[in-house]
Structure formats: C-alpha cells, structure tokens
Design goal:
two-stranded antiparallel ribbon, about 40% helix
Length: about 220
C-alpha cells in the first residue's frame, strides 16, 4: 500500500448526499503502486475508432470457445428459467462433474442485431469476466497442436470472494471494455445494488480487473 508523504496537500471531492473524500496526487504518495504501470498505461490508449458491432460479438464468442473451450450455449425460455431467473441477462456456469464451463445468455439475445448489440455484448463481457476473474473457480484450457496438447491455467480459484465483490468486478470489467470502444456503459445503478459500504470496493482487485478487461477487449479480432 502507498502512504501519504508528509506535508502533502489533498484535493477535496464532494459526493452528492455522501461524505467528503480527500484525494492525493500519485506523486504525493510513496510505497507499492498496487497496480503495475504497464497495466495502467494500456488504459491511456483508448481506441475510440472501434465501433461495437455484431461481428465483434461473434468474434468474441469464437475466441472464448476455440481458445479457452468456453462455449456460448443457447437455451430456450423454459430451460433457461430452470437454470436461472428470466430477469437476469445471462449467467456463467461451471459443472463440477466434468469441470466444464459454459455461458448462457437470455433467450432474447438469441438473435443479436444492431438494435440490441450493446445489451448483448455487455452481458457477454460481464459473464466472461466472471470466469476469467476466477469467480467460478480455477479453469484449465488446452494449448498446442495435434497430439501435443498441454493444459494451461486460465484463471486462479477466487470462488471464495463475496458475491457482491464478484459482481462489482465483473461489471467493472464490462464498463472498462466499453470505455475502450468509447461507449458509455450505464453500470452505476447495477453496481450500486451490490455496494452496501466501502468494504466491497476495498476488496475489488483493480489490477486483475484491468488485465482481464484488456484480454476481453483484444478478443474483438
């Protein structure tokens, strides 16, 4: 953790209906940066020339399926309702009987068009984030060619973290990916439902979330 240098002068941030926050410039602190510099620099280079499209959605699906062996499974309304609530946009699942992972989106996203691409892609990224952030537990995927396939770790086991923290990390991942496209994703209301106090944000792994968001963004093809 970084500590405040003696004599440093803070900036004051006023939150509506909230407490006063004191923020210090990075140069006025010392110690461990917490988030590595290379990860931070990636997010200075926003690629706003990219346009979110159905093709990007499809390429992302192919990437997670072919490289990481995580398929997108389309389910009818009845089957989807048996596994989850129809009020959810999608969900990621791990089957402990065989270690298989899969992602399912709400049946309304079975056909993705320009009219619903933002919602469908945002849900897809959120669920991919859950898996790559280790919220469902560890996963291995095969690398190599032909008979020379070797298992490789995809994500660590972080299934122990609180549900609220996992949801904040996954939605923050989606928000960061959208920001790279120059699109404002309205994530505040959703994250607010999982935020009871500052303890949730203190447990969010920002460095890991940034790396995973960049990994997903690169799946655009």
């Amino acid at each position: 953790r970084r500590t405040i240098r003696p004599g440093a002068i803070p900036m004051v941030i006023l939150f509506p209906f909230g407490p006063v926050k004191l923020v210090y410039d990075f140069k006025d602190t010392e110690g461990d940066a917490g988030v590595d510099e290379n990860t931070c620099m990636t997010w200075w280079k926003e690629e706003r020339s990219n346009i979110l499209s159905v093709e990007i959605f499809d390429r992302t699906i192919r990437h997670i399926d072919t490289k990481y062996q995580i398929p997108l499974v389309h389910k009818g309304a009845r089957e989807y309702l048996e596994d989850n609530s129809l009020s959810t946009g999608g969900y990621a699942a791990k089957y402990f009987s065989d270690g298989r992972f899969e992602i399912s989106l709400h049946p309304k996203y079975r056909e993705v068009t320009n009219s619903n691409i933002d919602e469908a892609y945002g849900t897809l990224v959120h669920e991919i984030g859950h898996i790559l952030l280790g919220h469902l537990g560890p996963k291995k995927y095969s690398v190599g060619r032909g008979d020379k396939m070797e298992p490789k770790d995809l994500c660590p086991d972080r299934s122990h973290i609180r549900r609220s923290v996992a949801e904040l990390e996954a939605e923050l991942t989606a928000w960061l990916v959208f920001s790279r496209f120059g699109i404002e994703k309205k994530s505040v209301d959703y994250m607010a439902t999982w935020l009871s106090d500052d303890k949730e944000w203190q447990q969010v792994d920002i460095s890991r979330t940034l790396r995973i968001a960049n990994t997903i963004f690169e799946m655009r093809g």
